[in-house]
Amino acid sequence: MVKKLLFATLIGGIIALAMKKTRMDRETWTDLTEDEARDRLKQRLPAKIPDEKRERIVDTVVTKMRDRGVLMDDEIDVTTPEGAMDLTDAADVAEVTADA
Questions:
Q1: pLDDT at 5
Q2: CA–CA separation, 43 and 79 (whole Å)
Q3: Residue predicted with more confidence, 10 or 76
Q4: Residue 15: CA atoms inside 13 Å, Cβ hemisphere, count?
Q5: To the nearest whole number, what is the mean pLDDT of the chain?
Q6: Which of 51, 52, 29 shows the shortest CA–CA distance to 40?
Q7: 38-61 tens-digit pLDDT
Q8: Quick check: 9 pLDDT over 90?
Q9: Number of alpha carbons in the 13 Å side-chain half-sphere of residue 67
Q10: CA dist., res. 63 & res. 18, Å (int)
Q11: Secondary structure letter of residue 21 according to DSSP
């Protein structure tokens, strides 16, 4: 009985670690711009793959990431909290007043 409980605990711990690693990996790829995703993918692909094939692979992966909404837009919308300006920062205030 104790062996079964220890075994179940061990399996549960392994599953929890795998889920945590998956979540952390996903977070490193979320909200990247397209250029950042392309650079990161090119670094991870082996150098022995021909450049033309690497570009096709990167294009395919980035397209799928964009379709899933994983990538961040290159231009940030200032009406959203992620793109909102900090009006307590003098540089942001100067930018807003210069545009007006």
A1: 93
A2: 34
A3: 10
A4: 6
A5: 78
A6: 29
A7: 998 888 888 898 989 999 999 998
A8: yes
A9: 6
A10: 27
A11: H
DSSP state, 74? S
Task: List C-alpha distances in Å: 39 to 3, 13, 15, 55.
Answer: 48, 34, 31, 11
pTM score over 0.70: no
Contact 8, 36 (CB under 8 A): no
Which residues have CB under 8 Å from 31's CB, separation 6+?
70, 71, 72
Measured N-to-C along each axis, helices 34-44 and 51-68 cross at an angle, to the nearest 10 degrees, of: 140
- Asked if 41 and 53 touch (Cβ cutoff 8 Å), the reply is no
Q: What is the mean pLDDT of residues 22-32?
A: 83
Residue with tokens 């210069």: 98
Q: What gap in Å lies between CA 58 and CA 40, rounded to an integer?
A: 10
- The domain segmentation of the chain, as residue ranges, is 1-30, 32-100
Q: Is the pLDDT of residue 20 over 80?
A: yes
